[in-house]
């Protein structure tokens, strides 16, 4: 946060008294009713309006005109509170928002359903756009950094870098004992490590035989098993290979195009033109795929990505929704407040 502040990545209103020519764009994952209601009341009381993707225009001069008293509220992942908290409060205050979703997780526990998404889309209150198809992390080497067990299942949730052998999609409920390899964002330029399955089979057998004792013994015993797994690897070779460049490009192509196709299929009369990078991470190969698929808007984090004019889309930076209360107007939050809340959120962890 401090690095971003010193480098000037935060929009002008965070430290100044004006929004400037850039429309403020906020992102959020989960929210609470009291918190979001206070944020919307601040917008309402100070005459702000909310935009959606259809309101935007690639002409920067028109975008600047639109920014005068407009903000863009975005919600990532499609968690259940999008329907139970965000949607009804937006209707109450007469506002709109954009939801970036990964179709692979819709209808799963903790997420909205397609039926709810269709209701929100048809209302005109929520504009659904792409957040990739699966939001996957990928293993990038054969180095084992953890084991999938009850202790980390709730921490990883959908971000566990354990993928299906065929299409490389996240395994939603991996067997306990499955190795967690060194990993990175599936939309970065890193190539996926494809295991031959030998270590997985061996570790899952170990967990089946000793799982209760491992869980009871805690981290000390897990370290011992990890040590044994590395000995297994030393005696059995690398245990896998990196995907080829062709496989990597095909994986990225599927992540981009399947997301767009699924949303447009499930939500009639829907045109998906915007993409939010999961965890604000990206790579040149991803941007090329977004260009090829016809995306117009690409939402990132505070740090602007290196751009190539050939890509033909507009990169949009976003700031955490904690900073809504820093927008100029009556009842404006003090400068320290958003940073303290953002720090607490980070300590509590959250997906993007």
Give an account of the 3D structure:
Helix 5 (81-93) links the parallel strand 3 (70-76) and strand 4 (97-101). Helix 3 (33-45) packs parallel to helix 5, helix 8 packs antiparallel against helix 9 (219-236) and helix 10 crosses helix 11 (284-292). The radius of gyration is 22 Å and the shape is globular. The protein starts with a helix and ends with a helix. Mean pLDDT is 86; it is low at 58-64. It is built from 12 helices and 13 strands. With 352 residues, the chain is an alpha/beta fold. The strands form 4 sheets. Strands 1, 2, 3, 4, 5 and 13 form a 6-stranded parallel sheet that branches.
The level of helicity is 40-55%
| Secondary structure tally, helices | 12
- Number of E-state strands: 13
- Give the full name of the CATH homologous superfamily of the largest domain: Glycoside hydrolase/deacetylase
Low-confidence stretches: 58-64
Q: Report the order of strands and helices.
A: HHEHEHEHEHEEHEEHHEHEHEEEH
Supply the number of structural domains. Answer: 2
Key phrases:
352 residues, alpha/beta, TIM Barrel, 2 domains, three-stranded parallel β-sheet, globular
Secondary structure: elements and pairs:
Elements: H1 2-6, H2 12-15, E1 25-28, H3 33-45, E2 49-50, H4 60-66, E3 70-76, H5 81-93, E4 97-101, H6 114-123, E5 126-130, E6 137-147, H7 150-156, E7 179-185, E8 193-195, H8 198-217, H9 219-236, E9 240-242, H10 245-266, E10 274-276, H11 284-292, E11 297-299, E12 314-316, E13 319-320, H12 336-348
Parallel strand pairs: 1-3, 1-13, 2-3, 3-4, 4-5, 10-11, 11-12
Antiparallel strand pairs: 6-7, 8-9
